[in-house]
Amino acid sequence: MKKFFKIGMRTTKTTLCVFVCLVVYEIFSYISKQVLPQGFVYDILRFAVFDGSPSFACIAAVICMQDNIEGTKKVAVSRIIGSLVGGGFAMLFTFLNNLIFSGRLYIAFALIGVILIICICNYLENPISVSISVITFLIIFIGTDVIHPYYFSINRIIGTLIGALSSFLINKYIYPPEE
User: pLDDT higher for 101 or 128?
Assistant: First the structure.
């Protein structure tokens, strides 16, 4: 009979990754409120990085934690590529749509963005990153009313980097799985 409630090493390491992400963002919050001087650079850092939600980092950490180091590395690289491509295109297309076309061509830009992102991910020979790239692009480009798309893109990219890196390092150096 199978045990109902088993906490194994992958569960423990995944939980540790989430903990690390949450602590990193608490440190970011402290720096934002106590250390950074006021001004333009402060505003960019505060909105894009320091006051961001740790949710993207935690999600990336959970998804990237695999049962072997190579799997963790593969998923982490795909997540990072996906966030960079999707976030980059979202920033570029937001700029083009809002500043050049006054927001009138967002449907066309959304469709063109999806096509270009799929082509780029395939060109990079990383088809696994297609879905996360397109999802990131669409969420940022057509789905953010609360925060500016540029800040949201940067927050998404940094969060993914933190989560993926924490998963890789924890999986590699804390009771690494046998290969």
Answer: 128
Answer whether 64's CB lies under 8 Å from 70's CB: no
Q: What is the total residue count of the chain? A: 179
Average of per-residue pLDDT across 116-133:
95
4 three-state secondary structure: coil
| CA distances in angstroms from 57 to 138, 162, 164, listed in the order given | 19, 6, 7
Extents of the domains making up the chain: 9-173
Interacting residues of 87 by C-beta distance below 8 A, sequence separation 6+: 136, 137, 140, 153, 154, 156, 157
Could you tell me if residue 7 is left (phi over 0), alpha (psi between -120 and 50 degrees) or otherwise beta?
A: beta
Calculate the dihedral angle through the C-alpha atoms of 49, 124, 131, 134, rounding to the nearest 10 degrees: 60
The string of pLDDT tens digits covering residues 51-98 is: 678 999 999 999 999 999 999 999 999 999 999 999 999 999 988 888
Q: Is the pTM of this model over 0.70?
A: yes
Both tokens of 130, joined, read 């297609």
